[in-house]
Amino acid sequence: MKCGESDLSSLLGDYSRRDFLKVCTASAVYMGLGESFGPQVAEAAANAAKRPPVIWLSAQECTGCTETLLRTGHPTLETLILDLISLEYHETLNAGSGHQAEEFRAHSIEENKGKFILVVDGAIPVKDGGIYCKIAGRTALEILEETAPQAAAVIAIGSCASWGGVPAAEPNPTGATPVHKILEGKGIAIINIPGCPPNPYNFLSTVLYYVTLNKLPELDDKLRPKFAYGRLIHENCERRAHFDAGRFAEQFGDEGHRKGYCLYKLGCKGPETYNNCSTLRFNDIGVWPVNTGHPCFGCSEGGVGFSTPLHSPAQLHHITPPAWFPSATPEKGKGASALAAAVAGAAVGAGIVAAGMNLGKKDHEEDEES
Amino acid sequence: MAINRRDFLKVSAGSGLLLASNTSPAVAAPKPLPPEAVGILYDATLCIGCKSCMVNCKKFNSMPGGALYREGGDIPYEHITPEEIYDAPTELSDKTLNIIKAYKSESADGSDADMERYSYIKNHCLHCIDPACASVCPVGALIKDPNDGVVSYDQDKCIGCRYCQIACPFGIPKFEWQETSPKIVKCQLCHHRYKEGNYSACCEYCPTGASIFGKVADLREEAKRRLTLSPGSKYEFPVQTVDSGNRQFKEVGNYLEQIYGMTEAGGTQYLFMSGVPFDKLGFNPNITDQAYPDLTWGYIKKVPVLIVALLIAGAASHVITRRDNLSDSK
Fold first, then answer.
1. Does position A125 have pLDDT exceeding 90, yes or no?
2. What is the ipTM of this complex?
């Protein structure tokens, strides 16, 4: 089915076709699918029998993940939730509240069974039966366990839902547990979009990927989509050149810090954290913690952010020296080969013979002259 | 006493053979460590290749007393550009006392499984317990401190013969070829910084504890302790100095059962630990446990005897030939 002008304009309302295609193309390129995928993404988003329903559950969270979505510029939040997806339930963005909202959630789950995307932000407390987080009189654990099996896929957004994050920091008084641990072994497709907060485009692209291709993007061993979490922050960091040249900020505010040197010694976790902050950045104006002068604290890496001290040096697991490092065992010439030696020997021999003959001739000539 | 030329030559050749025959270069017992010997332990499994040591080495050795100091000179970068940007040197030179090199296995293709096959190695003077450079120096410009064992250089004594360059099995001393009054340049373990209570800049600025400074006895103990740890377990690695309070919990790497410098070349005050065989990290596999000065000591120690013997023989032959000449002229 082709994505015609008229279909789109009827679907998009005052959101122009051009703008819509732009968003979809940007998402496609960003997901690594190539520009030609743009129209397909647009088609999928616009022509889905219904916009993909999304139910957003919140547990032990700070609403930072919602805040990050509120700050997206392309598309803006209203485009996202009104045109690209159908946000059925979200505690912060719900139009209704109380019983009305809860009723709508139950209704939507029933209606979209097996089709909706479940987004969870916040860790799930499990200690004492999960009483430390309740919504509408029921524990978050109960709600998640009931809702997740009916979803097409579960997206755990934010570090709390992915690894436990702030609520799970030692000594973890509420037994805060990441979503994938609770749903482990239940055969439910789970994607982690960690970050504190995660980049909204990582979330949006994952949703659109699913809507377009009807399958999950390729995930790494920590269930993160590889298109976003495939590389270490350190690898594409703007301060990387300083690291490679051995120039470091030794403390906050010193000369090196003011000159924009590498923040490794201040505890930057970029060398052990997989994310795309250093290339995608935030707020559509190209900012991210490292370019404001603060080291990365490893929020999107389980066992790093919220688990290790903020300013302790990162533990590097893999070292990959840049190509310009001098080699420990430089290549050496092998010396003259046997053939070259033979040739040289022959030449010398021939030279001697020739010289001898010449001399002899000269002697002879001189003899004749005298 | 009449002695003809033929007999004289016979005797000289015979005594020469005698001198040479009993000089088998037997492996002598290794020299003991100087009492307060200081050194560096470099652990390649902790090194992240940040080159912080190289940068700070240049910086602190360009200060008065440092090995790179020249009156009125700046920090000697490898290539001075208008902005004086740092340019990565590829080898030790008269401007680089300390260099981080990388090893990459031939089969490494960059995949995760291959990551283990990378290693860094830090090269600088090893401060041998029995240094070849000092033993060959004809004027004593290179001296091993009898107390802390640092092999340091005295520009005022040096005659520029560069024997030390040829003698050093590790290729450490470098010569200022482009200077009008050149000197030999090598790491002196930041000897000039000890008075103020500081220590080697490379260790002070190493963020991971890959290079730590300390008494060699303590460093050897620390290195041996690391070999007893099981790979993957956590260990509190000291940072900066071996006895510092600054420690970092880290995973223990896969160590080779060898601490380079314990016995190599008669023992060095700079010790290496690694997960990659040392010959792949650029160490000459021909270097044995024998201290280099021992190789020639058998001959060298006979030089005074030889000189005295030659003087006596010369005097004797002079007396004899003079007497003969006198009797002939009569």
1. yes
2. 0.72
The per-residue pLDDT for B277 is: 87
What per-residue confidence (pLDDT) applies to A84? 77
Q: Is the pLDDT of residue B159 over 90?
A: yes
> What distance in Å separates residue B28's CA from the closest CA in chain A?
31
CA distance B274 to A286: 41
The partner residue sitting opposite B49, judged by closest CB among A262, A325, A327, is: A325
Residues A251 and A148 placed together within one structural domain of the fold: no
Q: Within this chain, do residues A220 and A282 fall inside the same structural domain, yes or no?
A: no
Contact pairs from chain A to chain B, CB under 8 Å: 86
Q: Helices A17-30 and A37-47, interaxial angle, to 10°?
A: 120
To 5 degrees, how large is the angle CA A293–CA A298–CA A300? 125
Out of A119-128, B163-172, B298-307, least confident range: B298-307
* Model confidence, pTM: 0.75
Is A186 found in the same domain as A240? no
Same domain, yes or no, for A71 and A134? yes
Mean pLDDT value across residues B95-99: 90
Q: Are residues A201 and A258 in the same domain?
A: no
The CATH number assigned to the domain holding A295 equals 4.10.480.10
Based on the domain organization, do A239 and A280 belong to the same domain?
A: yes
**Which of these CATH numbers, 3.30.70.20, 3.40.50.300, 3.40.190.10, 1.10.472.20, describes B38-290?**
3.30.70.20
Q: What is the pLDDT of residue B109?
A: 57
Could you read off the pLDDT of A213-225 as tens digits, one per residue?
888 899 999 999 9
Residue A185: both structure tokens together: 């072994």
Q: A326 CA to chain B: closest CA distance, Å? A: 5
Count: domains in chain A: 2
Q: In this complex, do B207 and A312 lie within 8 Å of one another by their Cβ atoms?
A: no
Chain A residue with the nearest C-alpha to that of B48: A319
What is the C-alpha separation between B93 and B89, in angstroms, rounded? Answer: 8
Q: How confident is the model at residue A2 (pLDDT cuts 50, 70, 90)?
A: very low
Residue-number span of the structural domain to which A153 is assigned: 48-227
Q: Is B28 exposed, middle or buried (0-12, 13-18, 19+ CB in 10 A)?
A: middle
Chain A residues in contact with B52 by the CB 8 A cut-off are 246, 248, 265
Q: Give the pairing type, strands A134-135 and A53-58.
A: unpaired
> Is residue A364 a part of any domain in this protein?
no
